[in-house]
Amino acid sequence: MRILEEKTLPVIVTNRASWEGGNAAVGEPARLKVLADAAAAGADFIDVELAAFAEFRSLFGASAIPRPTRLILSHHNFDRALTLPEIRAVYADMVDADCDVCKVAMAAGSATDNAVAFAALGEADERPMVMLVMGELGQVSRVVAGKFGAFLTFASVGEGREAAPGQVDTATLAGLYGYRGITAETKVFGVIGNPVSHSMSPALHNAAFRDAGIDAVYVPLKVDDDIAAFIRTMVPQGFHGFSVTIPGKVQALDAMDEVEGVTKKIGAMNTVVTAAAEGGGVGLRGYNTDWVAAISAIEEGLEASNRSLTGARVLCIGAGGAGRGLAYGALARGASEVVIANRTAAKAEALAADIGEGTRAALLEDVTNGLEGRFDVVMNTTSVGMHPNVSDSPVAGGADVLTAMGQPLVFDAVYNPLNTKLLGEARSAGCVCVSGLEMFVRQAAEQFRLWFPEIPPNVELMRSVVMAKLDVARL
Ligand code: NAP
Questions:
Q1: Which of 251, 269, 368, 381 to mutate to test ligand 1, by most ligand atoms within 8 A of the CB atom?
Q2: Paired sense of beta strands 282-287 and 271-276, if any
Q3: pLDDT tier, 91 (very low <50, low <70, confident <90, very high otherwise)
């Protein structure tokens, strides 16, 4: 009760039953008495399980629950997500019990369950509601709750001190996501991936939105099932655009109404743009800003030494998603030949065959030992050299081979560390270097341009956010 005497903010008192996922260590009568005592002592809110309400209510006999305490009735399901009709039924029971606030928290079966939660909040017009989807799949329901009129959200007091799965800490909620500024008008963007908690995109895009005075929030969206279904489900809930990262870049194409030309050829996308569709509704357009980002950075590097991609001979190391985009991109910007070399030779051959004219597969050992002649540009699109394997390089022959190749411009898609072994050796061979940081920052800047064509992105700010996030000290 001392907490109530010394409180500086409104206080919710709860004593969650173990049968509803809580830690109450006493029997039911004693557990409920704590809540009744809190009401008598003037707690702003008490949170009582709907299932325990009849017993709790009986503690007061014919008298009312003391005011000004307000009653939150809650229902938690840690095993599964509820359907919208089930939530409606729980909400109706809570309203019948004459609570002040209805609270429903449910486990996530799928990231699309967030849409059910948002729909439930949208319908809640008889009493204020709190509606949460638990776990990382439901984190967005906690972060953007305010957009859908939620009475409040729950956050942890610090990282690692979460009281329920998926909670964000208060500093991140208020700072990174600007929770207090989120209203029904706030546009929601996010990065879809799995895993996605490590992504630097929320820090970068939220900073850029704020800098440009845009009323929008950008959140990580873990999706571990049908990505196309997730996109289709969230757009009607007011989601305005998405970034898509591994493993969703191919599957997301299925949700699009229209796919940009080179993106279609690449067969992988990383950006969803929403626009009003002819005849009503919202149309979805897919873009790939990865290749534009890397190729524009390479072009700028070439220009600085009075060279260009037109007619250039390009070596693409790697034949995965990034390799595919960059090989197409280099050809789209005028390269005369793109030689594709990959650890798994069959994949390089398949990519070269798929792209066709202007490409050829070569053996990785041959190119990295300097047996494939001169190149104007060398692009590493593999993860070789990425933290923690910082002493690896995809060019086995090092600086000598790069010199023998004719001091090509060297691009490394890896950006952690910024200064990879490959780039270090390229610099000592006198090559112009372009780091993966440029690709990362530019793909984000290009996304921003697609989402807000009238507002120029603050690319310098984006770069500094990523630099600050990377452990520069370690590099
Ligand atoms: P991916 O589709 O999984 O392809 C991975 C590629 O790396 C394949 O060619 C693979 O060869 C090769 N590889 C992996 N480990 C290797 C090893 N130990 N030795 C030799 N080759 C190896 O991945 P992705 O999406 O293309 O991404 C590749 C890299 O680009 C990652 O490091 C990623 O972080 C980076 N990237 C950076 C940006 C940026 O903005 N800077 C954007 C996208 C990607 P096999 O076919 O033989 O497996």
A1: 381
A2: antiparallel
A3: very high
